[in-house]
Every structure is written in structure tokens, then in C-alpha cells.
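G., the chain you wanted modeled:
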Amino acid sequence: MILYTLVAMKAAIHPVMHADAKTKCSSCGAVYLIPSTIKDQSVEICRACHPIYTGKQQKDLKGGRVERFRKRMAAGKKEK
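Predicted structure as C-alpha cells:
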């Protein structure tokens, strides 16, 4: 037979949860009110400006490494 003893939890060791915490994006300036333990915080990039969520991938990098290398080599031979 196993006997369990009730142990009281320590008081005041848990962080305070702020229901109206402000999170600001430093890239686009969007402000979100989300629950957090930090009252005011900032993030570098958010869902409104992240390339994966917006679908705006880097379009300037066309081709792979080999194609870009060959393009640079061809440009270098033209200069000579």
C-alpha cells in the first residue's frame, strides 16, 4: 500500500502572467497583444513580415550554385 502525502506548493515562485502584454515587431512595427510573462517585448520579425508566411521569397537568387558560378566565370572571361 502506497501512502501519498500532500505537499503544499511554494508560494510566489511562479512568474506573473500578463494577459495584455505588448509584443512589437521591429521590422514592420506591428503590435500584438498576447499573454506573456514579460509586459513589453520586441521581436525582430513577425508573422506579418516573415517571408515564409507572406510568400515573398527571395526572387533575386535564380538558379543554383553552379549556374551562378558559370555566370561569374563567363563575365570574367568577357573582361579579358
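The first strand starts at residue 22 and ends at 25.

Shout if anything looks off.
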